[in-house]
Specification:
This protein has 451 residues and is an alpha/beta fold. It has helices at residues 29-32, 36-46, 65-72, 89-102, 118-123, 127-138, 143-157, 171-189, 201-211, 232-243, 256-263, 265-277, 287-294, 308-315, 334-338, 354-365, 370-375, 377-387, 391-402, 407-419, 423-434, 438-450, and strands spanning 7-9, 21-27, 51-54, 74-81, 108-114, 162-164, 219-225, 249-253, 298-305, 325-331, 346-348. The protein folds into three domains: 7-189, Rossmann fold (3-Layer(aba) Sandwich), CATH 3.40.50; 201-348, P-loop containing nucleotide triphosphate hydrolases (Rossmann fold, 3-Layer(aba) Sandwich); 354-420, no CATH class. It is built from 22 helices and eleven strands.
């Protein structure tokens, strides 16, 4: 799921054009703009949920096509029913269009009854009765429109939502419940798409088992270990996106080795703390920052860690996280992991099994052309065997051989590959070699040349 900062229109502008919104908020400005609506908007913003809110103080008689489009592009519409909601034809037109879109796949409507009884909305009693008495006079020549508004209110009030009419809890509690519900629905809606990934489900389950998400243990750290191009980062990324909504804060810190060389460990540490606390913090070592981190349940991925100092700064005693926190570390060096992660919490990523390797290569080399799969079977076997089950190699080679239109081109490409291996693959694998000590490089080259 892609969640980004919230947005709203200015007093004179149309809604900003976007591909989609997570949430659209419908509300009566005079009743709630400076209260629950602004607080809910801020809470959604903090969660990085893409939200549309119309902040125009002066509205015309009819809502424009841009606003209708914003409703259509929103996955969830939140309707804040208040005392004077029904007195606004603008709000009522929004409601009709929201319910019209609700029947579409993946759309959802969440009513919030704020300082108004749901039965008053459903039956148009109380202040809603007074509002409709006026509307029936104004629209005496278009009474069908009034009937549509009544039907929309009845339909919306029968939906599952949040009742704050009796003020049984605080407004903060109400907003938290609404945001949590929205967050859960969006996460279910955007479950990670595993299409195109081969042989990965079992690996994900093993990593999730090591994490013990439902365990009350303090802070569990696990390691994902394997050679370059084996799929460590991909696994960590999928698990991260599946689980991050269960935590109070999260951070996926990519390319730790490379970024340390460029920016230094202190800068990396600042980036991590900023992402978790959602604010700039220059005093990383301060007691106050440390206490806040120790009270926060976090999910952190440290990707491509190469030495113990990186772990000390990002996941060691210098930064302590709250109960229930989970840290995932990916590394090519099992020795580095062993200094921080218990032996039983290290998952070794192995090469793909032969059938999975063939499936991955075929999906890229042939795509939808099933005829070629049979004609080129023997040639494909040679390439898959050459890749040795390494996902990166299979992906790079699959894309390369996709452009070959004849068996002769396949043979030429394969012979060229044996003489001049792919630079994309070599670049990733060479990182492991470059990190060896001088004597280790000599031993490696002796063994490689000997065999």
């Amino acid at each position: 799921m892609d969640v980004a900062s919230s947005s709203s229109s200015s007093a004179d502008d149309n809604p900003p054009r976007r591909e989609k919104y997570d949430v659209f908020i419908s509300f009566r400005g005079e009743d709630t703009r400076l209260g629950i609506t602004s607080h809910l908007h801020a809470a959604l913003l903090q969660k990085k949920i893409e939200t549309y809110i119309d902040n125009r103080l002066q509205r015309g008689e009819e809502i424009g096509p841009a606003l209708l489009e914003a409703i259509e592009k929103s996955t969830i519409s939140v309707i804040i029913f208040s005392q004077n909601y029904a007195s606004s034809t603008w709000c009522l037109d929004e409601l009709v269009h929201i319910l019209k879109c609700n029947n579409r796949e993946g759309r959802m409507v969440i009513p919030v009854f704020y300082d108004i009884n749901p039965s008053d909305v459903r039956k148009q009693h109380g202040s809603y009765a007074d509002a409709f008495a006026q509307l029936e006079k104004r629209f005496a020549n278009n009474i069908d429109k009034v009937h549509k508004w009544r039907d929309a209110l009845t339909t919306a009030s029968n939906l599952s939502g949040f009742d704050h009419s009796n003020k049984s809890g605080t407004e903060v509690d109400l907003i938290q419940k609404v945001v949590d519900h929205i967050w859960t629905q969006l996460c279910c809606e955007s479950s990670y798409d595993l299409k195109g990934f081969v042989g990965i489900e079992g690996r994900i389950k093993k990593i999730e088992s090591l994490l013990s998400i439902h365990s009350p243990d303090g802070c569990i750290t696990i390691g994902i270990w394997g050679m370059g191009g084996i799929g460590k980062t991909t696994l960590a990324e999928i698990v991260f996106h599946k689980l991050f909504s269960k935590f109070e804060a999260s951070c996926f810190l990519r390319n730790v080795r490379e970024r340390e060389q460029k920016d230094g460990l202190e800068e990396l540490q600042k980036t991590l703390v900023k992402e978790i606390l959602k604010e700039e913090s220059s005093s990383i070592g301060s007691t106050y920052v440390g206490e806040r981190l120790s009270r926060t349940k976090v999910l952190i991925v440290l990707d491509d860690v190469s030495d113990s100092m990186q772990l000390e700064h990002l996941a060691g005693d210098r930064l302590l996280y709250g109960i229930g926190s989970r840290i995932i570390i990916t590394s090519r060096d099992r020795g580095t992991l062993g200094q921080t992660v218990e032996e039983g919490n290290i998952y070794e990523v192995e090469v793909l099994k032969p059938n999975d390797a063939f499936q991955l290569f075929y999906s890229l080399a042939f795509k939808n052309n099933s005829t070629h799969k049979t004609d080129y079977k023997e040639s494909a076997k040679k390439v898959v065997h050459y890749a040795k089950g390494v996902p990166l190699a299979l992906i790079v080679l699959g894309s390369s051989f996709f452009n070959c239109k004849s068996k002769e081109e396949w043979e030429d490409e394969f012979n060229k590959l044996k003489r001049f291996p792919s630079e994309s693959i070599q670049k990733v694998l060479r990182i492991s070699y470059d990190r060896l000590e001088i004597n280790e490089k000599e031993i490696f080259l002796d063994i490689a040349c000997f065999f």
